[in-house]
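thought: user wants a sequence for this fold. calling inverse folding tool.
action: design(structure=
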């Protein structure tokens, strides 16, 4: 957590009117989203609906064509790389395919960013990394290399790598979609624990059971827009919109 005074009434992440086009294709059309501290928001929707584009826009991996983003009330100057770097220190990202450096050990992968950015000295970063690895049952893998780990273990390391920067929020893009079924549970367990501990998260996921139980809010996207959002149980059990119902019927 940062030392700055944070106002609980102000959303940690507040996006207004985010629009992103690729050539003539609009991937995100005037999407607004507000995430409070401690909230876990699950984003669901068909392939191509703009889910990845949305969460990539939230930390500048894609720069929106229009719209505004505020972090803890402060507007992000979206034309400035420096502003996005500051956002990424506070809002971490975990991808479907965890992209660890193959030539670095697990510990080196995790300590790289905290040391490079000057967040921590090497010893402190290593200690933090070992503590976090223990929390995801990977204490014995600190010196292993990515090629020696299973998909579920790799994804837990990727989550630890994001946590090592002590972010205030995590964005996760289909963190279990590349995993074999037996490994999905071990990653969802870690996310459940983080959720219980109050970590703010926006998770793109197809794991509807997980969304129902761990998310405070579910957002359904289709065709570059948020079609419907609300309490997880309401959206997943009794959706108001026909498009949401059609999607849920298809995947459940
Ligand atoms: N880098 C890109 N270049 C061109 N089109 C893209 C790019 N990224 C995404 N798109 C298009 O934008 C739309 C939304 O994509 P995406 O956000 O990845 O959807 P989702 O994550 O919901 O599957 C899709 O039609 C996709 O083909
Ligand atoms: Mg996607």
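)
observation: tool returned 252 residues.
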């Amino acid at each position: 957590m940062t030392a700055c005074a944070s106002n609980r009434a102000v959303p940690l992440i507040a996006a207004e009117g985010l629009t992103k086009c690729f050539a003539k294709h609009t991937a995100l059309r005037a999407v607004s989203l507000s995430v409070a501290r401690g909230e876990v928001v699950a984003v669901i929707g068909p392939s191509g609906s703009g889910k990845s584009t949305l969460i990539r826009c939230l930390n500048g991996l894609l720069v929106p064509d229009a719209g505004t983003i505020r972090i803890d009330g402060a507007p992000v100057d979206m034309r400035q790389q420096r502003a996005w770097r500051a956002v990424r220190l506070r809002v971490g990202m975990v991808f479907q395919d965890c992209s660890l450096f193959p030539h670095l050990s697990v510990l080196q992968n995790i300590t790289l960013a905290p040391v490079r950015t000057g967040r921590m000295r090497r010893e402190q970063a290593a200690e933090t990394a070992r503590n976090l690895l223990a929390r995801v049952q990977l204490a014995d893998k600190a010196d292993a290399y990515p090629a020696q780990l299973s998909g579920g273990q790799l994804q837990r390391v990727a989550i630890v790598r994001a946590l090592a920067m002590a972010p205030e929020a995590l964005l996760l893009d289909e963190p279990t979609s590349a995993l074999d079924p037996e490994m999905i549970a071990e990653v969802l367990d870690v996310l459940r624990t983080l959720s219980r501990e109050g970590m703010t998260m926006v998770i793109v996921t197809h794991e509807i059971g997980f969304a129902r139980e761990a998310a405070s809010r579910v957002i359904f996207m289709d065709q570059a827009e948020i079609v419907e959002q609300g309490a997880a149980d309401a959206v997943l059990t009794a959706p108001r919109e026909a498009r949401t119902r059609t999607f849920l019927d298809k995947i459940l």
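thought: summarizing for user.
answer: Here is the designed sequence. Strands lie at 13-22, 25-35, 40-44, 66-71, 74-75, 91-94, 169-173, 200-204, 217-222, 225-231.
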